[in-house]
Design goal:
Low-confidence stretches: none
Order of helices and strands: EEEHEEHHE
Oligomer: single chain
Helix content: 25-40%
Number of helices: 3
Largest sheet: 3 strands, antiparallel
Structural class: alpha+beta
Length: about 140
């Protein structure tokens, strides 16, 4: 399975990324690196991609388990190495699940299964220790 993407320079250090799906995202550097801070930074986009991948996996599994989810988000925090290439070395993920009669067992097993099915997590865990926790908000 192959994928394609295109990155086009807009100005200065700002780029527009277009995925094969046709969707676009603006990527820019911080002012200290010649950008205008007018878009995602590449590593922020990678951290966001991890959340999107893991979130889709967990929500899909929870729906199959017939959990009554009314809200869901993931808070992510990534620590990077001090020396170039400044990869992520530690990533903390807090899953917040809002709903009615949510099963803790279903949450735990869904998060564990997503660790095996999320391709972004599979790539990042070669350089970063990824820790997960969850919080349930009962309605």
């Amino acid at each position: 399975m192959s994928m394609e993407a295109k990155i086009t320079l807009i100005e200065s250090m700002a780029f527009e990324g277009t995925a094969s799906s046709g969707y676009t995202v603006k990527i820019d550097a911080s002012k200290e690196y010649g950008g205008k801070n007018a878009g995602f930074r590449p590593m922020g986009l990678l951290l966001t991609s991890l959340g999107g991948c893991a979130g889709a996996s967990v929500i899909s599994i929870l729906r199959k388990k017939r959990q009554d989810i009314t809200g869901f988000w993931i808070n992510l925090k990534g620590e990077r190495s001090k020396n170039p290439p400044m990869v992520f070395t530690n990533i903390e993920m807090e899953y917040v699940i809002k709903g009615r009669n949510i099963s803790e067992k279903a949450i735990r097993s869904s998060i564990e299964l997503s660790k095996k099915t999320c391709s972004v997590m599979a790539m990042l865990k070669s350089t970063a220790e990824i820790t997960t926790r969850y919080r349930i908000i009962n309605e």
